[in-house]
Amino acid sequence: MLTSIAISNFAIVESLELELKKGMTVISGETGAGKSIMVDALSLCLGGRTDAGVVRHGEKKADISASFDISLYPEVLNWLEEHDLDQEQDCILRRVITKEGRSKAYINSRPCTLSDLKEVSAYLVDIHGQHEHQSLLKKSAQRTQLDAYGQLTELAYTVRTEFNAWRTLKDELCQKMNVSAEQEAKIQLLSYQLEELAQLDLRHKEIEELEQEQAFLSNIAEAQQQAYFASNLLKENDDGNVCSMLHNAIQSASNIQPLTPELESALEMMSEALIQAEEASSSLTHYQDTLEQNPQRLLEVEERLSRIYDTARKHKVSPEALLILRDNVESELNKLQGGEESLEFLKLKEEQAYAQLTASATLLTEKRIQTKDKLASKVEEQIHGLGMPHAGFFIDCQPLDQITANGFEEIEYMIASNPGQPAQPLRKVASGGELSRISLGIQVVTAHTSTIPTLVFDEVDVGISGGIAEVVGRMLRSVGARGQVFCVTHLAQVAAQGHQHFQVSKQVADESTSSQVKTLKEEERTQEIARLLGGIKLTEQTLAHAREMLGNVHLQ
């Protein structure tokens, strides 16, 4: 329930703060005073479209905030908790618009997106403008209203979601089943490339290993010769070798007397060198024995490398990139081709999605048929009391040739204004007065079943007067008795039915215009009702009539 609203520098409102109550609140005032400004400000606070023109002239920004008591509305509490915006039992919405046209939105003092503001406000307030009947002429609005009345909104959303999922699968299936000639040619090319790369069967690091083996096999003869030469120099040469020369040097140095520490160190180093030279000679001899020329293996290695290099040149990549190329070709081919198994799987998914969609849409049709007669009967009852005693109201569920996102049928409101006349679509009703009354009847009926705590009616009683206006007022009062209703009106019969009454007036001071809102007490309210009845000049007759109207309300 809306508990308060604060408006600053919006249109001709300089500053306004109102405490609000349950029941029916009436807002009245002279033409041009700004009766609908509070409704317009509330609409912006709920996420409506705006521009820089709403900012009061000479000010930098407009600021609007609305506070709601949501203690009895778990849907709102859950939404706020899910979005980490909960604040005990309150919900405070705020909108700030700068003179440049930029705006910021807040929920419980935290910045939020405009879509979040709209989403949460849909649980809190429903605004019916004086041109609401224009949207009711659209079949889409009629369908939405019927679903809301029958509590079918969630089921209708399920049908739309399942329809979109099915269409996506169907489009994907059609695309796979209608591969173009260009795609087919590409598939053949990729298939050939993949087969060629698969036959090559290149292993990770194989090129590096082959190149090392090729270098080794190609240099075996040279390695044997060099190993023999090194070994001969160390030990095998009869004319003189390293080991024999070291042995002779050790013998000569050992004969020197006296044997000094320096000499002992030299002898020790020569002995170690001799040992190292003998071990090196032994290792070289062993290495020589392991070397064996293998021309056949060398040929195999060179042929394998040649095939790898030729394949790389053919595909215009480096030999090392052939493995990456194979993975890319395989991936692209899978995307284009998929395979028979994936095609069959996709067909199965599409069939299952369609079966689920038709089941949900069939259930929606059944419930709409059950709901439409109940809603039509209630609306017809209301419009009979609004000066159309012989009118018949019907809701047509016209089957469609194929399923749509909205189900198997098209919804349309039908009206027969007089007995003996065939029912026609509501959009073809010529009389604007009749259309206003029918629209109001629909709004009142749907408001009775609405789960939204606050309903706003902005001059929906245009074109209505006399006894019918009193019926309208009673309708709105009965709705307000079960929740909270705001009604902007120019009719005394409607205004008299309110539980609370605000008067809007326009003040001019220091060449500046501002709109003021005043809560009327008993006598002030009598005067306002009298003004609505007879104009600016009040007479005893109009005052007496006003008191009578207010008294009759209390007796009801």
Provide the fold topology:
Elements (H helix, E strand, L loop, with lengths): L1 E9 L2 E7 L3 E7 L7 H9 L15 E9 L4 H9 L7 E9 L4 E5 L2 E3 L1 H8 L3 E4 L3 H5 L2 H11 L3 H25 L3 H20 L5 H13 L1 H17 L5 H13 L6 H30 L4 H20 L7 H16 L2 H45 L7 E13 L2 E10 L7 E2 L6 H17 L5 E5 L7 H16 L2 E5 L3 H4 L4 E10 L2 E8 L2 H13 L5 H16 L1
Parallel strand pairs: 3-13, 3-14, 8-12, 12-13
Antiparallel strand pairs: 1-2, 1-4, 4-5, 5-6, 6-7, 9-10, 10-11, 14-15
Write structural notes for this entry.
With 556 residues, the chain is an alpha/beta fold. Among the domains are: 1-124 and 452-465 and 479-520, P-loop containing nucleotide triphosphate hydrolases (Rossmann fold, 3-Layer(aba) Sandwich), CATH 3.40.50.300; 184-337, no CATH class. 55% of the residues lie in helices and 19% in strands. It has 19 helices and 15 strands. The chain has helices spanning 37-45, 74-82, 114-121, 132-136, 139-149, 153-177, 181-200, 206-218, 220-236, 242-254, 261-290, 295-314, 322-337, 340-384, 432-448, 466-481, 492-495, 522-534, 540-555; strands spanning 2-10, 13-19, 23-29, 61-69, 90-98, 103-107, 110-112, 125-128, 392-404, 407-416, 424-425, 454-458, 484-488, 500-509, 512-519. Strands 2-1-4-5-6-7 form a six-stranded antiparallel sheet, with helices on one face. The longest helix is centred in the middle third of the chain and has 45 residues, at 340-384. The two termini are 25 Å apart. The relative contact order is 0.13. The model has no long low-confidence stretch (mean pLDDT 86). One of its GO terms (biological process) is SOS response. This is DNA repair protein RecN. Residues 1-509 form the RecF/RecN/SMC N-terminal domain. One of its GO terms (molecular function) is ATP binding. Belongs to the RecN family.
